[in-house]
Amino acid sequence: MAKILVITSGKGGVGKTTTSAALGTGLALRGHKTVIVDFDIGLRNLDLVMGCERRVVYDFVNVINGDATLHQALIKDKRLENLYVLAASQTRDKEALTQDGVGRVLDELSQNFEYVICDSPAGIERGAHLAMYYADEAIVVTNPEVSSVRDSDRMLGLLSSKSRRAERGEEPIKEHLLLTRYDPTRVDKGEMLGVDDVEEILAIRLLGVIPESQSVLKASNQGVPVILDEHSDAGQAYSDAVDRLMGKEVPHRFIDAQKKGFLQRLFGGR
Amino acid sequence: MSQDQDAVFQLKGSMLAITLLELARYDLARLERQLADKVAQAPKFFDNTPLILALDKLHDASIPVDLQKLIAICRQHGLQTLAVRTDRQDDMTLASELDVPVIATSSASGRALEPSDEASQGEVARPSKVIHRPVRGGQQVYAQGCDLIVIGPVSPGAELLSDGNIHVYGPLRGRALAGIKGDGKARIFCKELNAELVSIAGRYKVAEDLRRSPFWGQGVHISLTGDLLNIHRL
């Protein structure tokens, strides 16, 4: 049986899809058969970030409605052998998702994959609820600013009360915090919440800190998950996060501001 | 004015003295004999006396009771059964077949007459509601009729409600309302006061006022004197 991971946040634009693509790719890179499912029906983006938008024929809603089989709808990644994407429908809305339908599809995916990554839409409504309902573990993506932290907190509340595990009284969903778009320099200036502040407010395990980076936008536009850009700090930070997800102890990087050298200061640095 | 302004009846609550027959053993022959003895002692008392038949104190609760026969014996001796008090499903079914109302067994109603029992009841404290995980924004926890204890942080946007005291072993960043049924003696305890609002018996302070307290961000307990909320350092 696969492990079902949900990438969620409550707030939009914090990096859920980027994270889903990066973590999914990272798991596949380490040899685990992984599928990433886009739950953002009507605003499908994952296929763009994964660079498979031109190969979408059938989508998640088609499978739920029985118009297509999973086999027909799964898009195989061009770069990695054991990575697949299940795209969202662009023409429907979130009402097209049913609890039974989602359960059936995830069940079938669980038979054939080691990891099922659910890329949740923003908000706390149907799409987001169904994305997290069947999850075993949750990665809560948060930006270091107050509104994002508050929304993550709300999401954590829902994870602990509105999931299948909670309803069945099973062991609760394992929660991880992933802090994205982190800028240590601005934290030092007091313009941004620090890692410690966010950790203290949310009181969950820190999976990783992804620094604000030009490479993320570039990677999204090119349709290449940023984790494949081994030279970028964001790519390395995601790679560390995947290792921690697998249970490895890896020290946190990119938390402290780097002192700029004389030459870097002279020429404007990065 | 319409005629319906003139009420033809009035609903009133009232306490009536009604005899309760608590059956300890289901032995109809002995019951009949012993009832007859009682009637012989005070025949006036047993003249059309309203009665509640209590079956919840039966020695052996598994024996089926012939309710119809039981009621008949009572009637023979001048006791008119108004209702049956029981917690057994079989009795309830029988009673409804016989069109006799059923009074649910409540531990309080029967014991209230025995002072010794009442005293011991007062000594038994009601268990507090204990929450072992963080209370997140958007969540609401209500401890009805008891104290509320939270072990962990209470996030902004979370709401704690309690008829009694509230204890938070962690930072209190949400709302805490103690004594919401009007208990002015209720208190709020927390390890770190960062609350959006605290209230005791309806008297409240919002974060704007709380921030002015020298104990903001510290361990405090909050109590009510008259109309005033007092914040003391723990």
From TrEMBL, chain A:
GO terms for cellular component: cytoplasmic side of plasma membrane; cytosol. It comes from the Bacteria. ATP binds at residues 11-18. Keywords: ATP-binding, Cell cycle, Cell division, Nucleotide-binding, Septation. InterPro entries: CobQ/CobB/MinD/ParA_Nub-bd_dom (IPR002586), MinD (IPR010223), MinD_FleN (IPR025501), P-loop_NTPase (IPR027417), ParA/MinD_ATPase (IPR050625). GO terms for biological process: division septum assembly; negative regulation of cell division. Residues 5-226 form the CobQ/CobB/MinD/ParA nucleotide binding domain. GO terms for molecular function: ATP binding; ATP hydrolysis activity. Gene3D superfamilies: P-loop containing nucleotide triphosphate hydrolases. CDD domains: MinD (cd02036). Transmembrane segments: none annotated. Interacts with MinC and FtsZ. Belongs to the ParA family. MinD subfamily. ATPase required for the correct placement of the division site. Cell division inhibitors MinC and MinD act in concert to form an inhibitor capable of blocking formation of the polar Z ring septums. Rapidly oscillates between the poles of the cell to destabilize FtsZ filaments that have formed before they mature into polar Z rings. This is Septum site-determining protein MinD.
TrEMBL record, chain B:
The lineage of its organism: Bacteria, Pseudomonadati, Pseudomonadota, Gammaproteobacteria, Pseudomonadales. Keywords: Cell cycle, Cell division, Septation. InterPro entries: CAP/MinC_C (IPR016098), MinC (IPR013033), MinC_C_sf (IPR036145), MinC_N (IPR007874), Septum_form_inhib_MinC_C (IPR005526). SUPFAM superfamilies: Cell-division inhibitor MinC, C-terminal domain. This is Probable septum site-determining protein MinC. Interacts with MinD and FtsZ. The gene is minC. Cell division inhibitor that blocks the formation of polar Z ring septums. Rapidly oscillates between the poles of the cell to destabilize FtsZ filaments that have formed before they mature into polar Z rings. Prevents FtsZ polymerization. Belongs to the MinC family. One of its GO terms (biological process) is division septum assembly. Pfam families: MinC_C, MinC_N.
